[in-house]
Every structure is written in C-alpha cells, then in structure tokens.
Design goal:
Blueprint lengths: L1 H4 L7 H35 L2 H49 L3 H7 L1 H43 L6 H43 L1 H6 L3 H54 L4 H42 L1
C-alpha cells in the first residue's frame, strides 16, 4: 500500500525527510539532560564546586532549548508533510471519482465515497504525521535511553530484559484483537453517512408524510451500533494503559531497590541512580508511544486501504 501512494508525497518530500531528522536531534537533547543532571549531583554538589554546577546547569538549559526548537521544527514539518499528503490523496481520489461510471458509484455508494474523502483521508494524514514524528521518536528514545542506562549501570539495566519483551507481548495480543474492529467501525460510519444523506436530501418528503420518528429510530439504531463497536475497540485500548503503568512502576521500584543497595555498597552514585530512573521513564514512555502509534496506524491502514480502492 505504501508503494501505491508514495508518489503523492513527492511534493512534500523535503519536509518528510527533515521532520524525522529534527526529531532525532530533539531525542538526543532529551537524552543528554539526565546525564548532565547526574554530573551536577555526583561532581558539582559532591565536591561543592559551584562554578561546575553553574556551567553544567547553563549547558542543560541550552540543550533543553535546542531540543525544544528541534521539536517545534519537527512538528511543523511533520504536519505539513502529513496533511499535505492527505490533501494530495483526497484530490487524486476526487478526480478519480469524476471518471466513475454509474456502476462504479453504485458499487461504492455515495456515502462511502464521502467518508473516504473526508474521515479516511484525515486519518491517513494524522497517521502520516505520527509516522514522521512519533514512529521516529519512540524507537530512537528507547534505543538511546537503553544505551545510556546500560552505560550508567549494566547490571541494573538487566531489568529491561524482562520488562521490554513483556510489553511487546502485551501489544501483540491487544492489537491483534482490535485491528479487525477498526475496519468495521469505518464501515459503520459509512452507514451513518448513508442515512444522514438520505434524510437531508429527502427532508421535505419525510416531513410531508410525518415520518420523522421512523427516520429518527433508523438513525438511532445505526448510531447505537457504531457506539457499541467503538466502545468494544476502545475497551481493549483502555485495558492496555493500566497494565503498562503496572509494568512501569514495577521497573522503577526494582531499580530503586537494587540501585539503593548499590549506593549503600558504594558501587553506584546517587546522581547515577537519579539519571537511571529518568531513563526508565523515557524508555517506558517510548513503549507507550509505540502502543499509541500502532493503534492509530492500525486504523490508518484500514483507511488507506479504502482510499486505494477508490483510486483503483
């Protein structure tokens, strides 16, 4: 599917290239801040070297500001590339529809075509923007934070050997459940659009024959069906976050417990433990971002398939 629609990104290829680059630079800045913080605690405060503390604090501020600037640039270029790509797809699909025969329109149905040009294209644009930013930020943050955590304390970093496979197993189980649900949701939106279009187009006839209650009941039935399907899909996603929080806090507690023993034994410094727990938060937050991205990408994949059906 990506090969099929990649030509529509050509106009925004520079933004699509620079957005991930800026995102990686932002991640490097975010990774550097905890390390500098640990140096302030373990070197500056420990030796009471005020000049070192001030210099390092100023460097932290500069790094944080550069990271913020890179984040803003990445967001801007990612949004331009993502929603520009969606606009190109929408335009191509609309032009294609102009060439349809009556048989084509009967096969697709007008409400379904409207959904594909609006809801589906918007979702594809959003997922494209997330792909250029979140799909780059999350793996980069996880890899760099793992490297820094292992560099600080390789023994303590072994807790990730258990935590990370456990999280990915959880993702695989949940998203295998929700993937088919998202396509059904888009089809039910088609049904809502069909009734809305019919009722608005024929509102004079409906009022003339006093059929408002009947049409309202039809709409309520489709609307309730869409709500139930959406809730069933969202419930699986909601289940993910409390389990993720349980894993995150378990890892942090383990790090504090074993790291505390190492500080008492003199094999680890307190600033290093502070930085290590910060890296834990960054790693686990990256995993949560991956879960959010996969959820959106699953919906986006279903929407992209529906747009390609229009183009083909």
């Amino acid at each position: 599917m990506i090969k099929r629609v990649l030509p529509y990104m050509r106009k925004y290829r520079i933004n699509a290239f620079l957005s991930p680059v800026a995102m990686v630079l932002e991640v490097l800045a975010d990774i550097g801040v905890p390390f500098l913080m640990s140096r302030i605690v373990d070197v500056g405060i420990k030796t009471r070297d005020i000049d070192y503390v001030v210099r390092t604090a100023v460097l932290m501020i500069v790094v944080a500001l550069l990271g913020m600037l890179m984040g803003i640039l990445s967001s801007f270029m990612g949004a331009k590339a993502g929603y520009g790509f969606a606009a190109e797809l929408r335009q191509a699909a609309y032009r294609k529809i102009q060439t349809y025969s009556f048989a084509n329109i009967d096969e697709m149905s007008v409400p379904s075509l409207i959904t594909r040009l609006t809801t589906d294209c918007n979702l594809v644009g959003q997922v494209t923007m997330m792909t250029l930013r979140m799909a780059v930020r999350a793996p980069s943050m996880m890899v760099f934070a793992l490297i820094m955590a292992a560099n600080l304390n390789a023994e303590l970093a072994k807790i990730f050997v258990v935590a990370i496979p456990l999280v990915f197993t959880l993702f695989a189980v949940i998203f295998r459940k929700v993937h088919p649900m998202f396509r059904k949701i888009q089809e039910k939106i088609d049904g809502i659009n069909a009734i809305t279009r019919e009722d608005l187009a024929g509102i004079r006839v409906i009022k003339s024959f006093n059929r408002q209650d009947y049409e309202a009941a039809r709409f309520d039935e489709r609307n309730a069906d869409l709500m139930d399907s959406t809730i069933r899909a969202v419930m699986w996603i909601i289940l993910l976050f409390p389990i993720m929080n349980l894993i995150v806090y378990s890892v942090i507690i383990s790090a504090l417990w074993f790291g505390g023993h190492q500080i008492v034994a003199g094999t680890m410094l307190s600033g290093e433990l502070m930085a290590f727990t910060t890296y834990i938060g960054q790693i686990m937050m990256s995993l949560m971002m991956v879960s959010m991205y996969i959820m959106m990408a699953t919906r986006g994949r279903a929407s992209l398939a529906r747009i390609i059906e229009v183009l083909d």
